[in-house]
DNA sequence: AATGAATGAGCCTTCATTCAT
DNA sequence: GATGAATGAAGGCTCATTCAT
């Protein structure tokens, strides 16, 4: 499943890209402040610096902006995360670096993450899958890293445990943004990252031990 | 911080309570289906079985319904969770029971949890704190259980680690509902609960070990 | 095919009827002046004497007003025509009276007829048939009268000629309104009626004669 | 009253003519499908094969296209009708031929006729007369033919009856297109033409007889 | 001459809220 | 207390027209 194409009346692809970047930027700012529903298309146009008519040259419906925004956020998260991961011969070290990189992205994109969390549900039944796919991709990045750790006997997760663990990693990062009202009251990003790394890492390391 | 009082034009407290129960029930159903913003007050009134005029005898603004709903959901979660926890002499057993009970509630109230997750942000700046307080209460329930485990040397969490761990427990439960599109594709509630228990438990047990 | 029911949010049937009468009256006036497309719903509401919100309590879409108008016009034409026809033992006399009555109605409802002629095409594919049916009904009234004339040997139309002749009668009346820019420059309604009666009547009387 | 001149920004007359032909062709197609009001200038430009900017080099306002279309249709009707009429020494034969020719044109230009009937009213008060004049010209063609028939004693119409009769001839043809939903259900063009010829001809032949 | 991006007035429609009955 | 008709602000979206390139 690729990115969904939103048609534009304007033909110049370069221009479309530039204008849409403006739109997204403006929209994110508005969404942060008042959410998707309370943001009017006029506000977005205005903040983007052009008229309402022009806005509609680059989208078809209000919801298109939301899709554009969600898509852009994921794109950026993935891009930043990917470049943060790098590679290391030691599987666990790589996993750790990936997590730290991902958490750092979550920290720097807090607002965007919150927007995503709260507005995804407003996407149409048609657009939603495209976005969920990207979320799932994120999960899979960690699944693969975990799989490598398991393959190299650095973690002893069962096959079925990997997905759950990967989920936890992904979520832990997002929650830094989404539950900032409580978490950021108690920790700074470094402390939080370190803490979560250990909680999650040791969980994964010892999960196969017998328990009561 | 107590529950926030929503004024009603109707004097008879009994009646107010009965009607509001109807309102909440109707609203939750609507929110599940289309979210807060796309649900009209008319729909709520209709589904509740009375006229739009009557609805406004029991609330002042559309948002009041959302508050009522959020409040009611938390109330129910807490009530059910509380009765599920019970007591056990062994601190870890009690923690485990609490977690299992909580997860079971999350499973049975999936829709409600999703509604909460997606609509809280629509609460006014004024109402939000009341609701976040309840969320925080949930966290504290687990913080206390963890504190007891630590006190009885069953877990060796540092003071500052407790809050983060408690957060993870709370979140893990909510995610069963909120990320059902991915998690429930892979697990059933029992498997998920068991898995998370072990991942989280061992994480908390071994978190203080030295790590690379 | 009965009249199509346009749903209303207002329950009081009596009120619905009264308000819709106002709407129709206002709309006809607007349509006369500027046509359906250039008439705004606000203008209709205003001319009808209530707010735009109220208008939409009695219709769903702008086009509903058009349907209401078309339906009302036909209803009135039929009602007036019916009461004008009466009965006479002599079939031809009855036909003549019917025609004269019909023409008189066309004369008194000129504006409405013109509106109909020009706006019917704006009805949705869904509504159109209901209106065309009424037009066809009009035709059939004359077909029956002609059939009686034929049965009583007062006219010698072949079966297949009846429909065409009936059409001509119907049209001749409508044209008094629709082509008033030319016809009413040359005739008054009485002259026109008398003239058409004779042209059409003798046509029908002698149509079966051999022609070159 | 001549044709009304629509100014163009482009100097080259040849080009103007060519482009306008394209515009008209495109517009007619659009009007057939959705009427004047629902057709956008963009659609016309696109279907004509050039840009919206270019369209506005050849017209000033949307309505200009409508005028161009109406004018073109009449032009074509007249041209085709004229070439169909021919000449015959016998006045009635010529009348008949003219009618048959005219009906045949109406048949082949059904869509255009319908467009005209429904959109003329959308012409500005300023343009309308030019178009009505052409309609009147059509009438006059038949008035003249009828006058000749009368002069040669082949028909005994009174002076004032000629215009009405001519009107009926013109209308009968147009109705084949405009009321095709009912007429073409019952007849084919040949039957219809023959039938109308006889109904109208005998009407005109015997109109001066005394009637009840 | 041709292009097509930009504009913004304006339209239809919805819906939270009020208030007379 | 209950009802539901009335209100009108507000929002999404369209499209004729312009103008810089």
UniProtKB/TrEMBL annotation, chains A, B, C, D:
<dbReference type="InterPro" id="IPR036271">
    <property type="entry name" value="Tet_transcr_reg_TetR-rel_C_sf"/>
</dbReference>
<feature type="DNA-binding region" description="H-T-H motif">
    <location>
        <begin position="40"/>
        <end position="59"/>
    </location>
</feature>
<dbReference type="InterPro" id="IPR001647">
    <property type="entry name" value="HTH_TetR"/>
</dbReference>
<protein>
    <submittedName>
        <fullName>TetR/AcrR family transcriptional regulator</fullName>
    </submittedName>
</protein>
<dbReference type="InterPro" id="IPR041490">
    <property type="entry name" value="KstR2_TetR_C"/>
</dbReference>
<dbReference type="InterPro" id="IPR009057">
    <property type="entry name" value="Homeodomain-like_sf"/>
</dbReference>
<keyword id="KW-0238">DNA-binding</keyword>
<feature type="domain" description="HTH tetR-type">
    <location>
        <begin position="17"/>
        <end position="77"/>
    </location>
</feature>
<dbReference type="InterPro" id="IPR050624">
    <property type="entry name" value="HTH-type_Tx_Regulator"/>
</dbReference>
<dbReference type="Pfam" id="PF17932">
    <property type="entry name" value="TetR_C_24"/>
</dbReference>
<dbReference type="GO" id="GO:0003677">
    <property type="term" value="F:DNA binding"/>
</dbReference>
<dbReference type="Pfam" id="PF00440">
    <property type="entry name" value="TetR_N"/>
</dbReference>
<keyword id="KW-0678">Repressor</keyword>
């Amino acid at each position: 499943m690729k990115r969904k194409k939103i048609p534009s009346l304007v033909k110049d692809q370069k221009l479309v890209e530039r204008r849409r970047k403006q739109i997204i930027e403006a929209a994110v700012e508005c969404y942060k402040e008042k959410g998707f529903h309370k943001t009017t298309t006029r506000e977005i146009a205005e903040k983007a610096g052009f008229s309402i008519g022009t806005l509609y040259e680059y989208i078809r419906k209000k919801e298109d902006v939301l899709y554009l925004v969600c898509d852009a956020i994921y794109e950026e998260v993935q891009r930043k995360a990917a470049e943060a991961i790098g590679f290391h011969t030691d599987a666990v070290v790589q996993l750790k670096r990936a997590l730290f990189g991902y958490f750092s992205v979550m920290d720097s994109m807090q607002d965007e993450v919150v927007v995503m969390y709260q507005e995804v549900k407003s996407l149409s039944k048609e657009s939603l899958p495209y976005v969920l796919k990207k979320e799932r991709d994120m999960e899979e990045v960690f699944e693969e890293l975990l799989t490598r750790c398991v393959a190299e006997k650095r973690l002893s997760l069962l096959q079925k445990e990997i997905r759950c663990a990967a989920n936890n990693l992904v979520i832990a990062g997002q929650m830094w943004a989404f539950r900032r009202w409580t978490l950021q009251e108690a920790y700074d990003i470094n402390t939080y990252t370190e803490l979560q790394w250990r909680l999650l890492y040791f969980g994964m390391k010892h999960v196969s031990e017998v328990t009561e």
